[in-house]
Amino acid sequence: MWIITIHSKKGIKMFEFSTEKEARDRFEVMEGCKILSEVIYFNDLWLVES
C-alpha cells in the first residue's frame, strides 16, 4: 500500500493507493508539501522474506 500525505494550512490529508505507479503518477501532479510512503505490514510474508 502507498500513502501520499499532504500538509497545508487547511490541515493534513492522506490518500491511499494500491500500486506504486498509481501513487507516483498522482504524486507528480499534487501541489504542496507532500510525502510519499510505502506501508509494509509484517504479516505480508512475501515482503518480509525478500
Overview of the molecule:
This protein has helices spanning 20-29, 45-48, and strands at 2-8, 11-17, 33-38. The chain is an alpha+beta fold. It has one domain. A three-stranded antiparallel sheet has the order 2-1-3. β1 (2-8) and β2 (11-17) form a beta hairpin. The protein is elongated, with a radius of gyration of 13 Å.
Helix-strand layout with pairing:
Blueprint: E1 2-8, E2 11-17, H1 20-29, E3 33-38, H2 45-48
Antiparallel strand pairs: 1-2, 1-3
Structural class: alpha+beta
Number of strands: 3
What is the molecular shape? elongated
Task: Assign a percent range to the helix content.
Answer: 25-40%
Q: Largest sheet at a glance?
A: 3 strands, antiparallel
Rounded average pLDDT: 88
Q: Strand order within the widest sheet?
A: 2-1-3
| Radius of gyration from CA coordinates | 13 Å
**Element pattern in H and E:** EEHEH
Distance between the termini: 17 Å
Strand content: 35-45%
How many domains? The number is 1
Number of helices: 2
Flag low-confidence runs: none
